[in-house]
Specification:
The chain has one domain. The strands form 3 sheets. It has a 5-stranded mixed β-sheet with strand order 3-4-5-6-7. The chain has a two-stranded antiparallel sheet with strand order 1-2. The protein has a two-stranded antiparallel ribbon with strand order 8-9. The longest helix has 12 residues. By secondary structure, the protein is α+β, with helices and mostly antiparallel strands. It binds iron/sulfur cluster (2 copies).
Length: about 170
């Protein structure tokens, strides 16, 4: 399972990206004009980065959960699963950034059941993004949150009876 106490931001032994380049499609990388859901202009899909030696720090620092966590098997490799998993270093929420070309991939098995188990076991949300559109999975099920703006953040509210809800909060509001 995902154990936040043992999380590291470096590849696990024997793990490498191989032909996967999905993180170069699903995230904003402002330094090179890349927008979530579109291949970065510097990416050679399935091959690598054309500016690897001078790629931005955001790219240098990035490792997805499949790379760092060797308990995630081959089905979870991003170019097979069609989504990239990360965990926020502070909140420990799990994020699923989906390839818009396979927007329902996360609902397939073995993924969907496991995402729900992580939400329940960790008592923290799993948030699925397709571009900026978000769906939160909590112990109470799914909540469609819609598009998350650059000035918005997600917050978890614990309600009476042990229920949880994720809400959008405008920064500064
Ligand atoms: S998504 Fe993960 S495995 Fe794929 S290229 Fe990025 S870091 Fe490597
Ligand atoms: S600059 Fe290179 S490593 Fe960074 S997103 Fe673009 S292709 Fe990927």
């Amino acid at each position: 399972m995902i154990d936040p106490a043992t999380m590291v931001n470096r590849p696990a032994q024997g793990r490498d990206c191989g032909s996967c380049t999905l993180c170069c499609k699903v995230y904003d990388v402002p330094a090179v004009g890349a927008t979530a859901g579109n291949w970065c202009p510097n990416c050679q899909p399935g091959s690598g980065c054309k500016i690897y030696e001078v790629r931005p720090q955001q790219c240098r620092a990035f490792n997805c959960l499949w790379i760092t966590q060797d308990f995630l098997g081959p089905d979870w490799k991003p170019d097979k699963a069609r989504f990239v998993l990360t965990m926020d270093g502070t909140t420990r929420w799990i994020f699923v950034q989906v390839d818009p070309g396979a927007a329902q991939a996360w609902r397939k098995e073995p993924y969907y059941s496991q995402l729900k188990r992580w939400a329940a076991a960790g008592n923290r949300p799993v948030v699925v993004f397709v571009r900026k559109l978000a769906i939160a999975i909590t112990t109470n099920g799914e909540t469609t949150l819609g598009e998350i703006g650059a000035d918005e953040r997600l917050v978890l509210r614990n309600l009476p009876g042990g229920r949880q809800v994720v809400e959008k909060l405008r920064v500064g509001a």
